Amino acid sequence: MKGKTLLLLDGSSIAYRAFFALPSLRTRTGLPTGAVYGFTSMLFKVLEERRPTAIVAAFDKSKTTFRHALAETYKAHRPATPDELRQQFNLIKEVLTALNVPVVEKEGFEADDLIGTLVDRAEKEGWQCLIVTGDLDALQLVSPLTTVVLMRKGISEIAVFNEAEVKRRFGVTPRQLPDFKALAGDASDNIPGLPGIGPKTASRLLQSHQSLEKLLESKESLPAKLRETLERHKEEAVLAKKLALIRRDVPLEEEIIRPWPGPNILATLEVFSRLEFRTLAKRFLELFPEARLLSASGLTPSAVRVKVERPEELERLGEELGRQEFAALAYPPVLRRKATSSFLALCLGGEKVFLLEGPEVLKSFFRLLEEKGGLVSTYDAKSCLHALEPYGFKPEMIGFDVLLAAYLVNPAANNELGAIAFEHAGFMLSPGAELPEKAQAIYQLTPILKSKIKLQEQEYLYYSVELPLAAVLADMEKVGVKVSEERLRSLSKELGEQLAQLSEEIYKLAGERFNLNSPRQLGYILFEKLGLKPVKKTKTGYSTDASVLEKLAEHEIVAKVLVYRQLAKLKSTYTDALPELIDPATGRLHTTFLQAGTATGRLASAEPNLQNIPVRDSLGRRIRQAFVAEGPDYVLLSADYSQIELRVLAHLSEDPGLCEAFVKGEDIHARTAAEIFGVSPQEVTPEMRAKAKVVNFGIVYGMSDYGLSQELKIEPGEAHEYIERYFRRYPRVKQFIERVIAQAREKGYVTTILNRRRYIPEILSSNRNQRQLGERLAINTTIQGSAADLIKKAMVDIHRQLKGQGFKCRMILQVHDELLFEVPKEELEKVAPIIKSTMEQALPFKVPIKANLKVGPNWQDMEEYEVE
């Protein structure tokens, strides 16, 4: 029947190509999925372009086929299938099953033979066939009814072969390709071909003799040398053709070719959710629009939307609240800590979604919620507080936050609400989902994520640290930090003058003016005009990144370029940008803390990012001077954990030497220096101590011999010896590191003091560099993440105490291991001991935790503050 198209997938071949195109793709548990992703992506691409009537996927059943019985050398040179690929074949078949695509495989035959048989059957019934493969062998199946789509490079580059294209490429017809391979050989299948006969000769012979058999019959008419070759190698040629010829008579069940019913939508989304294929899931829903309703069926699209526009209409909602454990609340996006409208959606389960609109309705609702002692579950509690606090919403009303819960369950995942719904509940939210849909999604996700938090033993971390921290951060964002616009603008002007002077000096050394901010022009000046030796090249020319320029810094022009870049970055990032971000209503900077933004659990900040203001150079310190107290009656108080990561290491490793050093209050860097340099503590020089400090923190960050050698500018052998001496002195540290790496390999993740979890798929990679990266991440996350647990718990406790005792002191910034407070001078003596003791006792440790306090009028000009 005209118009029927059969899509035939060479499953084994496509999977192999996809695997090498996307070799490192893994789930958070370390399950390799690159081949599955690439295979499915290729299938979707074909489905987008051609809508087949039927689909069949063929796979090799086993490595040994009838061809191996004919010739032991057949494909003998091919390497074994990589373990990471072998693991994925069943996953690919799971995807195909979910898509309702029949899978065919048969012992003793290759996928090619199954495809050849199906093509033969289909053509006899008038089907058009489309074969997708990465194997040239399939080209012999090309005919007026059959086309081959050949994957050439990975999964992105393809070539389409019809009869004319085969003839153009090989000089023979598709049916002659087995004869062609018998004569010219095929290295990929370990078919040697006949001596002295290459592709051109083979093509010419087949054009005049049609087939190998006819060529052998008329060999007497051939030149002597060619005749001799054919006589001597006749058996090899005949065997080679048998090996190259795709079978078309494999006994297969009759009903394999049948109209494709389309995918099983829920099953497909479930598989994609398990394999963490969110992008493919989106593509799937675009490819099959009818899937949208089914995929979101759990959201009850037909739910009754009950509008509440007057406070007196809340009575029926109050009855519902009394019967429910929680209500799911969704609200419009928040812009710069302010709600964009007085509107929210509330889901209490069942068939109803309440739509509350208007300031008075919201105020009445939150009074009702407080009276009933009700709790809400929401997405992004911090933003929720910013948006709804003006209407009476309070932190104690927040019972659950699906954003923070999803972040703890898998910190590396996309934490948009739609992504959370897909990963944890297997349904998709449309990109433009309305508030009622979002409220329903939050309602469904809440028990699922509660269960996962409990299963991963993260209830303390969630309910005692992360959830209450959202309210702490909301307060900090609302308060903001005072900055001196005058100081910043003055420094910006000064930097501008320095940059102008530096530019002229660089132009003079270069002998011409050029765009200093153009890597291409700078590369030309340095490496072509001035003849400096290039360190590395990129696709677009010479690399001029920082690592390259630092290696060439002995040249005056390069040294000046490095200074220019540093000053330009400070100017653009801070002195120019920060004044523009000052809120005119408050006169303060209001950063946004990203509570779910890092894999280690540390906080980050944005708009502006205040985490990376430099502290070691004079200009960075001058930028800090612009962060000031509110006025003459206030001071800034900095509370900074001392060597917290090393103390965490001592606690986790329980190394006696390391613990003893902290218990005795020794200088840990001097002690390490004495050990690795073999001198008494009195003989340790400042240079030795500085090197020991790098070693101490290098261990924390999982630094290799090479990494340490680069940092200290010494030979790798010497760096190796330093590390070995360190481990001889602190043997339990080495045992701890080995234990962490072993856990990461066994479980696929590491945990912190409070059971924060990070999945490290890199540690299971077959790539050595990726494995080593995974080992470094495992060590660093365990230590740095535990330090994050500590400071977050301290922030929650300090905030509770300051508020509970009615102090005006406010926590305004958190930067790594430091907390910054704005304190009325008359409160300083009272709040400083509270802050210090709370930081030092936030969590139980086996070694003393120390917080150093400093006080001053700005963030830079501070003096140590001793608590009596």
From TrEMBL:
Species: Ammonifex degensii (strain DSM 10501 / KC4)
DNA-directed DNA polymerase family A palm domain ranges (all copies): 620-827
Catalytic activity: DNA(n) + a 2'-deoxyribonucleoside 5'-triphosphate = DNA(n+1) + diphosphate
Assigned EC number: 2.7.7.7
PROSITE patterns named in the record: DNA_POLYMERASE_A (PS00447)
Protein name: DNA polymerase I
Complex and partners: Single-chain monomer with multiple functions.
One of the Pfam families matching this protein, by short name: 5_3_exonuc
Alphabetical UniProt keywords: DNA damage, DNA repair, DNA replication, DNA-binding, DNA-directed DNA polymerase, Exonuclease, Hydrolase, Nuclease, Nucleotidyltransferase, Transferase
GO BP terms, alphabetized: DNA-templated DNA replication; double-strand break repair
The family this protein is said to belong to: Belongs to the DNA polymerase type-A family.
Family annotation (InterPro entries): 5-3_exonucl_a-hlix_arch_N (IPR020046), 5-3_exonuclease (IPR002421), 5-3_exonuclease_C_sf (IPR036279), DNA-dir_DNA_pol_A_CS (IPR019760), DNA-dir_DNA_pol_A_palm_dom (IPR001098), DNA/RNA_pol_sf (IPR043502), DNA_polI_exonuclease (IPR054690), DNA_polI_H3TH (IPR020045)
Domain named 5'-3' exonuclease: residues: 3-259
SMART domains on file: 53EXOc, HhH2, POLAc
Gene3D superfamilies per the UniProt record, alphabetical: 3.30.70.370, 5' to 3' exonuclease, C-terminal subdomain, 5'-nuclease, Ribonuclease H-like superfamily/Ribonuclease H, Taq DNA Polymerase, Chain T, domain 4
A GO MF label: DNA binding
